[in-house]
């Protein structure tokens, strides 16, 4: 993810470490000189798709950079790539998810949606011992047709009529 620019800030990795899995690297990701979190990058193998996991510090939202940051992840991933992002440090998203809101109704979910992601899963209780804490999974659609289907499914999940109307009226869709 080096050499991505978000406004005047460069997105870059430090402390890059190879793990015991040859396709998996771990590093700290910075926007400018400030950390946005520890990151794992899996480059894919056979039928396992590329994925990125970010233990996110949501300070870019307050700086007005979060949608652009999520768009950098979206652009970096290939079709079918997966993005996992923790929300334990994002108190508003955490509170809303545990109160029954859908992912896209939260501040973080909205940023992910505006960046281009269309499918979401809340891993509020991740499986297994190495899975870490609560996180959102979102996948980059493999095609426009898949993205359209994902929007239809998403509209069934959204409870807030204002957000549902916004999606219907503002997202480019097939006619």
TrEMBL record:
SUPFAM superfamilies: Acyl-CoA N-acyltransferases (Nat) (SSF55729). The lineage of its organism: Archaea, Thermoproteota, Thermoprotei, Sulfolobales, Sulfolobaceae. It holds the Pfam family DUF1122. It comes from Candidatus Acidianus copahuensis. This is DUF1122 domain-containing protein. It comes from the Archaea. InterPro entries: Acyl_CoA_acyltransferase, UCP017998.
């Amino acid at each position: 993810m080096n050499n991505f620019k978000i406004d005047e800030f460069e997105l870059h990795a430090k402390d890059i470490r190879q793990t015991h899995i040859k396709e998996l690297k771990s590093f700290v990701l910075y926007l400018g000189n400030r950390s946005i979190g520890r990151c794992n990058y899996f480059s894919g193998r056979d039928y396992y798709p590329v994925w990125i996991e970010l233990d996110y510090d949501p300070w870019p939202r307050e700086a007005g950079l979060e949608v652009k940051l999520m768009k950098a992840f979206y652009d970096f991933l290939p079709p079918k790539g997966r993005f996992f992002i923790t929300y334990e440090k994002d108190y508003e998203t955490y509170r809303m998810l545990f109160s029954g809101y859908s992912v896209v109704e939260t501040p973080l979910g909205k940023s992910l949606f505006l960046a281009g992601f269309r499918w979401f899963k809340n891993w509020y209780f991740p499986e297994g011992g190495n899975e870490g804490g609560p996180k959102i999974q979102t996948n980059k659609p493999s095609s426009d047709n898949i993205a359209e289907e994902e929007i239809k499914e998403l509209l069934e999940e959204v409870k807030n009529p204002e957000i549902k109307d916004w999606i219907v009226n503002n997202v480019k869709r097939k006619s």
